[in-house]
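Quick start: what a row looks like.
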Amino acid sequence: MQPDLLGLEISRGELKRLTGFDTEDLYRPSMMIDKEKRVSFFINESLVALALTPVIVGFIYAFIILPSFGSSTGLGVILLIIVPIAVILGRSLWRKFTTPQALTILLDEVDKYHTIIQAIDINDQLLDSGNSQSSIEDREQVISALQLIREDLVRALKSERILRDNKKLLANHQELLVNNLANLQTLEVSNQAGEYAQLLNQSLQIALDVQAELRKLQKVTGDR
């Protein structure tokens, strides 16, 4: 990956610092759409459930079943089946109701942003192999757009966290709601039908989505 693309990525560590969450632990509806993420999510949840099951089953069996019913292999087997299912469902519901909706929307925009970076990286590799006719000029335009979008994404994530942690404090940090949409709209791509033109259009859509979410945050602040 080219150095300018590496500088655009928002790492998992930076996301954790900006949001206060390990984003891999958050429930996001978009994960259920992506097959790879969905499988990874259920594997992780299954491993956690399997790790917790012996502890929970042992506690229930020792302190509830034995005093009430005596030794029972059948009840023990039933617990071994029910408990991991209950753990997975319980954790999923807890994540669903405790994950801020605005944050999930912004993280989905971060995913779209990273998808564009990956597309440019693939294009770069094709160009290096002599299989692409992409314009360097157009690439620079998209990189400029992504730099502005990165700034907006960081601002939006900061604003969401400030609102979540201290709703009153956000009123004193309105500068975080400033965005780069006007600057993005001044960018032009020489070949509007080209690969990079499509990527720029996708970038502009991300900027619009982030701006809409910032306005929602600002409205919440105003209402309070």
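That is the whole record. The mean pLDDT is 79. The radius of gyration is 23 Å.
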